[in-house]
Each structure stands twice: as structure tokens, then as C-alpha cells.
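Researcher: I've got a protein sequence and the SMILES for adenosine-5'-triphosphate. Could you write out the 3D structure of the bound complex as C-alpha cells? I'd like something to compare against our soaking experiments later this week.
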Amino acid sequence: MRTTPILEVEGVSKRFGKFQALTGVSVAFAPNMLTAIIGPNGAGKSTFFNVVSGAFPPSEGRVRFRGRDITGMAQHEFARIGIAKSFQITNVFKQLSAHENVRVAAQMRTARFSLLRPRASLGELSDKADALLQRVGLWAVRGKPATDLAHGQQRALEVAMALASEPQLLLMDEPTAGMSPEETVVMMDLISSLASERTVVLVEHKMKLVMGICQRLIVLHHGAFLAEGTPADIRANAEVKRVYLGQH
Ligand SMILES: Nc1ncnc2c1ncn2[C@@H]1O[C@H](COP(=O)(O)OP(=O)(O)OP(=O)(O)O)[C@@H](O)[C@H]1O
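Model: Sure. Here is the predicted complex with adenosine-5'-triphosphate in place.
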């Protein structure tokens, strides 16, 4: 990789008891690119995502963000250093409006930084929330309680909340899971546009979905690295076809 990577995963393995879910995975991610981690069922994609996003530490290996070792770092530190993850639907306060949810997310960021800079005023937070809601296409429903939003809109709300921390790296786990075809198109367009401003790494089971929007794909199989490359490279890779495309 010619540019200095923003995220480096080095020799990462993960065991659950005797089960080896990941084995020695090493990959690096260039800044401001959209990369998808793909692979068939049980390939280790979610485990990879959880290790990289700090949900649990790897059994072996290191994860580095902008050169800093973040292996095993506490979850709450991630937003502070510039990493956000979506989707944890549980983060949405169902009774609050879309606007209030994003404002709270933005407020949490300024609270974290309050020692370093003055707290933002309510007006500033409100403006920021509005801008983010516009960014993810939820302006029209900003006043609605989150619970009344369609599934796709709730997920877009999660994205707006994740963006409130102004991340340099956005990690997304199956962002279109459970979405209708129409909602999927909207979300894919959104992800594509977000990736022009920051690094986005997404985990996706459905390879076809990401082929059109990702610059790079990483394929896992049986918990190990199988291949990486552009969508065209991956489409032409006989081994990938065998283990992955053959199933669909
Ligand atoms: N907490 C756990 N305890 C035990 N085994 C686990 C645990 N989490 C995952 N596994 C196993 O690790 C393997 C990889 O699972 P993982 O969820 O990472 O795969 P995946 O590629 O995301 O699959 P899918 O596309 O089906 O979601 C699977 O065989 C799974 O059963």
C-alpha cells in the first residue's frame, strides 16, 4: 500500500474456547477509501468487526489506528480518538425525536472534550444535529420519535449519531440488514457519499451489494484471509468464486 494506512490489523486471531474464529488475519486500510469485508456464512466477518471495533480483544495480534496501538482499548475511548461504529440500534432513544437523538450524540462528544474546549451551546448542537439529519436524508422526519421511523430511517439515524463524533474512521456491520430493497439503495448511496469524506470499513454478507460502491474488497473464509482487491479483481478470482459466489 503506497499511502500510510489509517488502520492496520496485524496477525489477528480469535478463539472462542477451542473454536478458532479468526486465524492470523493481517490487512491494512488506506485513508478515505470504502472497503468491504466480505465472505460466506461463518467466515469470521463479525468477529473481525468486533475485534477492530474493540467489542472484544483478539487472542493474538494487534490493531493500530493512525500508528497507535488500540488493541484492547476501552470502547468509550474509540469515539474520542476518531473511530465510530454503526449500528448499535440500542443507542437510539426510541421516545426521543430523530433530532433529539442526534443532538444528544453531538452533546456527548462535546462533553467528552469539555476539558479541552468550551462546551457547545444548545443552539450549536441543534444546528449540528440538523446538518447531520440533512446529510443522512432525515430532515423531513426530524421531529418524529425514533420509534415511529421506518427501519431504514432508524438505521440512517444511527449513522447520523455515529457521524456526530466526527470520526475519521466509520465501521459498519451489515448496514442494510433487514432493509427493503428501496431502503437498501438509499443506504448504499449514503455510504458511498460518506466515504468521500472519511474512511469507511463495512462488513457485508451480500457481495453483490458492495461490488458497485466499494473501492476495495477483502475476502475472509473459514476465519482466514482469502483475497483482496478491487471489485473487478475479486469478481475474477477463481478461488473466491469457488468458496463464495458458488453459494449464491
Ligand atoms: N461468541 C462466540 N462463541 C463461539 N463461537 C463464535 C462466537 N462468535 C462467533 N463464533 C463462531 O465463529 C465463526 C465465525 O463467526 P462470525 O459471526 O464472525 O462469521 P460471519 O462471517 O460474520 O458469519 P455470518 O455472515 O453468518 O454472520 C462461526 O462459526 C461462529 O459460530
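Model: Residues 16, 19, 21, 39, 41-47, 205 surround adenosine-5'-triphosphate (CB under 6 Å). The longest helix spans residues 98-112.
Researcher: Great, I'll pass this along to the crystallography team.
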